[in-house]
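Predict both folds.
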Amino acid sequence: QVRLVESGGGLVQAGGSLRLACAASGIKLDVMGWYRQVPGKQREVVATVTSGGSTNYADSMKGRFTISRDGAKNTVYLQINSLKPEDTAVYYCYAQLVTRPYWGQGTQVTVSS
């Protein structure tokens, strides 16, 4: 059974930074990553990283978002810099084993102007 536990969300002023963390229990996963969702909108991908360390970012997320992975801790991180009010969303940890997806419970990030 795979369990994903996110941490690091919160309230931050515009221009600030946050680092989200997602710890996975269970076996090593092929892909880990982050999505985000604003109420009333579809969940969108932020970034993913493979077990080999290859990263992929949504075009709109390049520059201020950095994803990283600690294989020993089975944890994926998302560093967000220069936060903007439009970054306000619930951020979900995502993981994939072969073709099966797993989701965390989500962590709220709120950016005040």
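Second protein follows, with its predicted structure tokens after the sequence.
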Amino acid sequence: QVQLVESGGDLVQAGGSLRLSCAASAILSINVMGWYRRAPGKQREFVALINSAGGTNYADSVKDRFTISRDNAKNTVYLRMNGLRPEDTAVYYCYLDQFGVRSWGQGTQVTISS
């Protein structure tokens, strides 16, 4: 069982920035890592993903504000979030897809004050 540990969530003012990190205990060469979020009273929604070749995809709501990246040597994926808005407030969950199996992290709280 792969373990994913997120960090970096915090309380920041609107317009601020945060960087989330997600470290995986073990990953294989072909995989996809990414982030979802769940806002209070809403369904979980896709945020961004990056594959092992470095290809990325973003939700329209975060495009041009968030940047996903990864350090394969550290088995870690990052989510740089700029221009944060109150509507970005959510628990952010990291995931890893490999060999048809999805693993999830425990989540990290991001709160944006107006």
